[in-house]
Amino acid sequence: MAILSAADYEQEQLLEALQQINEKEIEINDCYGERYIACGWKNKKRLIIRGTAGNNLGAFAQGPEILLYGNAQEGVANTISDGRIIVHGRVGDIAGYGMRGGELFIRNDAGYRLGIHMKAYKDKQPLIIVGGCAGAFAGEYMAGGNIIILGLEKKSPLIGTYCGTGMYGGAIYLRGEYPRKRIAPNVKIEEVDHKEMSKIMIFLERFSSHFNYPLEKILEEPFTRLSMKQERPFAHLYTGFVS
User: Fold this and answer.
1) At 208, phi and psi to the nearest 5?
2) What is the Cα–Cα distance from 200 to 106, expressed in whole angstroms?
3) Residue 39 lies in a domain
4) Which helix (H) or strand (E) holds 20?
């Protein structure tokens, strides 16, 4: 394993140093807001970060596993298509923006616009699980994949306003109580039955394993599924549309 301290480098020097390392496992200590770490990585490396990661951690990545022991700023997992990011803390706004694949696990809370513009294609089904709560506009214009918000600490409402605004694919799963008035009107709301729970159980097991959180506690509360209410909700905005 290669080990280095972010405190020994300027921003660009740190990114250059990481590019020069050939080891499959790398650890970065003393991280205090350095940006673009692992941005664009196309490999299967395992990166361990201790501290606070700056904007766009793992953005556009294809393959690496990133373990962050601390908090992260905005844009975590921005447009990634493969790989896994595990945050042992909270994240800022637009986490998982435009995800096309891969997985993002967040132990605590997420900021505004979680998972907006998420997509799915064939076997590419992106996943975000938040152990805490999420801010406004979670799942905005979502087109595929799954978002699961657990609210394990119940320190604030599970979701912010306008959850699911404009979503036209994928699903958002909410655990336990949530403010129904914060769900966008274009969203279908359904209770999750046993058959549906079997589909997301593997995701919940992964969250439980990553953060050593008892699965039985996660399952103490029922789940609600949010999905699109109608197909092609914006079709009427295009020229030539016939109803």
Assistant:
1) -60, -40
2) 16
3) yes
4) helix 11-20
Which pair of structure tokens corresponds to residue 190? 């359904």
Are 135 and 147 within 8 A, CB to CB? Answer: no
Residue 22 counted as domain residue: yes
Please count the structural domains in the chain.
Answer: 1
Cβ–Cβ < 8 Å for 131, 154? no
Name the phi and psi angles at 140, rounded to 5. -65, 130
Among the listed residues 123, 175, 121, 122, the one whose alpha carbon sits nearest the alpha carbon of residue 147: 175
Q: Taking Cα atoms as reference points, which of 188, 223, 179 lies closest to residue 204?
A: 223
pLDDT digits over 201-227, tens only? Answer: 999 999 999 999 999 999 999 999 999
Domain harbouring 73, CATH code: 2.160.20.60
The tens digit of pLDDT for each residue in 4-45 reads 999 999 999 999 999 999 999 999 999 999 999 999 999 999
